[in-house]
């Protein structure tokens, strides 16, 4: 059985609460993900900021020439997360519908990385292939 720690993306750069929104958007775009976890100085998960969270503020900020917002102003303060030992099948079931498409992976509240729907889909595909060829 594949578990989260087998597919976690560890090479992400999380956001900090005091990061300016424009800089956060650049990091999200560079990540190739639809959002990034927000951590404190001890790498503990404190929030999540998605593209969707940013779009309305970017429109409003452009219209009103107001670009002083920081990540803490817009982030979700109680993000859903997964742990390294959870089954990929369980996570796949949770990702159905309008649930988050990217989950922070934490252990004892410390951020280890993220997993996305694409990561889960790839893992499920590999599982099916291994069963088909066995």
Automatic annotation (TrEMBL):
Classification via PROSITE patterns: CBS (PS51371)
SMART domains: CBS
InterPro entries noted in UniProt: CBS_bac, CBS_dom, CBS_dom_sf, CBS_domain-containing
Domain CBS residue range list: 8-67, 75-130
Gene3D superfamilies with a match to the protein in the record: CBS-domain
Keywords: CBS domain, Repeat
PANTHER family: CBS DOMAIN-CONTAINING PROTEIN CBSX2, CHLOROPLASTIC, CBS DOMAIN-CONTAINING PROTEIN DDB_G0289609
Protein name: CBS domain-containing protein
Organism: Endozoicomonas lisbonensis
């Amino acid at each position: 059985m594949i578990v989260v720690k087998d597919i976690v993306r560890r090479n992400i750069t999380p956001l900090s609460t005091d990061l300016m929104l424009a800089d956060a958007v650049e990091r999200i775009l560079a990540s190739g993900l639809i959002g990034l976890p927000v951590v404190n100085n001890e790498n503990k998960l404190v929030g999540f900021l998605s593209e969707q969270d940013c779009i309305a503020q970017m429109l409003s900020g452009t219209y009103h020439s107001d670009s002083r917002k920081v990540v803490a102003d817009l982030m979700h303060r109680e993000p859903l997360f997964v742990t390294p030992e959870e089954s990929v099948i369980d996570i796949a079931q949770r990702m159905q519908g309008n649930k988050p498409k990217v989950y922070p992976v934490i252990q004892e509240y410390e951020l280890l990385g993220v997993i996305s729907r694409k990561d889960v889909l790839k893992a499920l595909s590999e599982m099916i292939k291994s069963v088909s060829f066995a």
